[in-house]
Fold this sequence. Notes:
Blueprint: E1 4-9, H1 16-22, E2 24-27, E3 30-33, E4 36-38, H2 45-53, E5 58-61, H3 65-77, E6 82-87, H4 95-103, E7 110-114, H5 120-134, H6 139-152, E8 154-158, E9 173-179, E10 182-189, H7 192-204, E11 210-216, H8 222-233, E12 238-245, H9 248-254, E13 259-265
Amino acid sequence: MSGIAVCTDSSALFPAGVVARLDITVVPVQITLNGQPHLGREDEIDEFYAELAAGASVTTSQPSPGAFLGAYASAAEGGAAEVLSIHLDARVSGTVASAELAAGEAPVPVTVVDTGTVSFGVGACVRAAADAVAVGGSTNEAVVAARELGSKLQNVFVAAGGHGGRIGDVSGWAVLELVEGKTQPLAACGGVDEAVELMAERIGDAPGRFRAAVGHAGVVTEPAADALAQSLTRSSRVVEVERYRVGPAVGAHTGPLSFGAFWWPTAE
């Protein structure tokens, strides 16, 4: 471990293998499914969405200050001299506030970063910070890397609220985007193919060269996510298209039929 430990929460949607490779700490979002705690494990994602589609009740809450404090203490015990704790937009969740409360009691200095984004976008910002730390960058340089990327990220997604999601009044194949902490509608589509086409057009309007990432929640929308990713890869301006899975920490809000994408400019 370097002298700077990097921490985030499970809404950043990191697979276990990526967590290990980046040497980061992930504090779990608290999920309750049908009144029982749900761990949000990778091997339980399909089961989670099946239960959600069948009408299961689900709630989430940000990690407690105690959970963050435990993570910070563990990092200190592992040799970290300071911690960089990177999280989703404070306008969407109380996670940043919870981390800041814990930071005041931590045994080492903790810098809490509000990325201004959510979901996979947070994960992308964490990677940018971790990459900066890995090459010897300072905490300030890592913070700048995370915040700079967060300010450039754009997103578009479908959240089928009538099927288990909890984002506002969403029905059918409504295409949305999150802008400055607020969900805004782009269009109401007559079907999934129309939604994919509209999303591809929206992303394709981005100037210059860019990277993109496409994710899906339940298996039923994996083909739609595949189609969107394939459409993007056909553009000569797209440097790379990543794929990710929308885990329970986020899918509890967007629903089992959700899928979407993030994109950001690149000089490559």
